[in-house]
Amino acid sequence: MNSPARLKPLRSVDEITGSRRLRRMRKADWSRRLVQESRLTVDDLIWPIFLVEGENRREEVAAMPGVFRLSADLAVREAERAAKLGIPALATFPNVDLSLRDRTGSEILNPDNLINRATRAIKAAVPEIGVITDAALDPFTSHGHDGILDNGIIINDETVEQVAAGAVLQAAAGSDIIAPSDMMDGRIGAIRDALDVAGFQDVAIMSYATKFASAFYGPYREAIGTKGLLQGDKKTYYIDHANTDEAVRETEQDIAEGADMIMVKPGLPYLDIIRRLKDEFQMPTFAYQVSGEYAMIEAAAANGWIDGEKAMMESLLAFKRAGCDGILTYFAPRVAELLKG
């Protein structure tokens, strides 16, 4: 068979592009590095860890290979490892014993609860690492919701009062940043007031400004033990994942109430929200690469469908490209090791 005749183009490539050949700076590794627009460093990483009662206790989360629930003593060891790797901060999430959970989440008001004991232990051993704590009620409630449940309704104002009181106890235990994830109206202002009155003016607030009603939280709920407890859904307080203007209004309100930084959760499905918030508010902006995102990458890598290491790094760089100043990610220690080289 005769090969098709090659047609001479009407114009040369230089004529078509005006001699602007964009591949010039892609030709070598050194030139690609020279013009790279977004960079991921260890300074961008926040490592979420899960806590459990006991000593020398380490339980793998089935839906999150490589992620463990840790007793406070082992959490201290991991904090020491994180500090050596240069990771700036940890975010702690407790799996509270079922016997301590009730309708109102009253265990958050215990100064010696699991999250506060772990904070004290970590700050005593590794004072140079930041500790971020969540004042939401879901780890402490018997129904798995982020607020006080009354006749099937999450009561906003009573929840805010309890969340603010819990935040003060977390600050007293040594928390550097309070990051309330409950999405109750007025929580940021109430926490700021409570912290200031209690003398914790230097404790910052990272607002989960846009936490969406997402399908990507499943493995996390297994990790903190709320998966089988949740009654109904959280759509009366988390944001509809179809809405962007609402996300902007939520963020604007939290900033007005005193948030020092804002967060978007989940991460990769909401890169457009990250970019819009960064452009609108020029605030320190973070994203939470949530458990479902982590599990998808791990599962695909385990099946040989993707290169897990490359997908991990690409997904995190996407957050930086979208405008993030930092990322909460379960990959943090692995990434820090890679960046250390």
TrEMBL record:
UniProt-listed Enzyme Commission number(s): 4.2.1.24
Keyword Chaperone attributed: no
Annotated InterPro entries: ALAD, ALAD_AS, Aldolase_TIM
A GO molecular-function descriptor: porphobilinogen synthase activity
Keywords of the record: Heme biosynthesis, Lyase, Magnesium, Metal-binding, Porphyrin biosynthesis
Native source species: Neoaquamicrobium microcysteis
Biological process annotations from GO: protoporphyrinogen IX biosynthetic process
Name listed for the protein in its UniProt record: Delta-aminolevulinic acid dehydratase
Gene3D superfamilies with a match to the protein in the record: Aldolase class I
Active site positions, chain numbering: K211 (schiff-base intermediate with substrate), K265 (schiff-base intermediate with substrate)
Gene Ontology CC entries for this record: cytosol
Binding site for Mg(2+): E250
Gene: hemB
Catalytic activity: 2 5-aminolevulinate = porphobilinogen + 2 H2O + H(+)
Pathway: Porphyrin-containing compound metabolism; protoporphyrin-IX biosynthesis; coproporphyrinogen-III from 5-aminolevulinate: step 1/4
Assembly and interaction partners: Homooctamer.
